[in-house]
Design a protein that fits this description.
- The protein is of the alpha/beta class.
- It has two domains: about 1-95 and about 185-230, 2-Layer Sandwich (Nucleotidyltransferase, domain 5), CATH 3.30.420; about 95-185, ATPase, nucleotide binding domain (Nucleotidyltransferase, domain 5).
- It has eight helices and twelve strands.
- Strands 3-2-1-4-5 form a five-stranded mixed sheet, sandwiched between helices.
- A hairpin with a 4-residue loop joins strand 1 (about 1-5) and strand 2 (about 10-20).
- It is elongated.
- The model is unreliable at about 220-225 (pLDDT under 50).
- This is tRNA (Adenosine(37)-N6)-threonylcarbamoyltransferase complex dimerization subunit type 1 TsaB.
- Keywords: Transferase.
- One of its GO terms (cellular component) is cytosol.
- InterPro entries: ATPase_NBD (IPR043129), Gcp-like_dom (IPR000905), T6A_TsaB (IPR022496).
Length: about 230
């Protein structure tokens, strides 16, 4: 099954092209807020290198969040546009599960963290074998609140883990483990593995239901609630 997978949930956008369990190509656009604007070119180059047209794909996949509100929307919008143009089915997955997939068969539980700003993190807790299995639901909360729930050796990764590394180490001591630097970047290729598993299980998402999972209200929604309450 040939799947084009897009992730724009953080500063580091990426796109991957896979055929079953074979990675045909991946483009990592770097930690740059403008990287999502280069996605169409990255997609075109990956398809061209593989000798494929969009119609030659079997499915399209994207991370659904949590993460950057604007970024998540960009990835989903691109997948929806391609799906409308080609008629191909769509798949979605948690961006935190995708990040946890950087540590397959990890001996410890894995806590992927994105910086949610406002002194909060998007946080998940996973057991990772071939795939990332959630030990609890993804959440958004102050990092100290998340750390208060950790009582076993845990590998922390992601931009949120790096930002709050001092707090994590001070709070958890030897229970906190940090992997090598290259493990902290989200990769669409890891999302492609989640997408393939979902496709094999028949868990496609109808286009009207392919929506962001932000975990908290946007600034616009918060402002509207305040206006309505006033």
């Amino acid at each position: 099954m040939k799947i084009l997978t897009i992730d724009t949930s953080s500063n580091c956008s990426s796109v991957a092209l896979s055929n079953g369990s074979i990675l045909l190509g991946e483009s990592i656009l770097g930690e740059d807020r403008s990287s999502s604007g280069r996605l169409p070119e990255a997609v075109d180059k990956l398809l061209a290198a593989a000798g494929l047209a969009p119609d030659g794909l079997d499915a399209l996949a994207t991370s659904l969040g949590p993460g950057s509100f604007t970024g998540v929307r960009v990835g989903i919008a691109m997948v929806k546009g391609l799906a409308l143009a080609t008629g191909k089915p769509t798949l979605g997955f948690s961006s935190l599960a995708m990040l946890a997939m950087n540590l397959p068969h990890c001996a410890y539980q894995v806590a992927p963290l994105f910086d949610a700003r406002k002194q909060e993190v998007y946080a998940g807790l996973y057991r990772v074998t071939d795939l990332a299995q959630p030990l609890r639901e993804d959440v958004v909360l102050p990092p100290q609140d998340f750390l208060s729930t950790i009582d076993a050796p845990t590998v922390f990764l992601g931009e949120g883990a790096l930002r709050y590394r001092e707090l994590i180490e001070r709070t958890l001591g030897e229970l906190a483990i940090f992997p090598a630097w290259h493990c902290h970047l989200p990769r669409a290729a890891a999302g492609a593995a989640l997408a393939l598993n979902a496709a094999q299980a028949g868990n496609f998402i109808p286009l009207p239901l392919l929506n962001p999972r932000y975990l908290r209200a946007s600034e616009a929604e918060i402002a509207k609630r305040r206006r309505d309450a006033a």
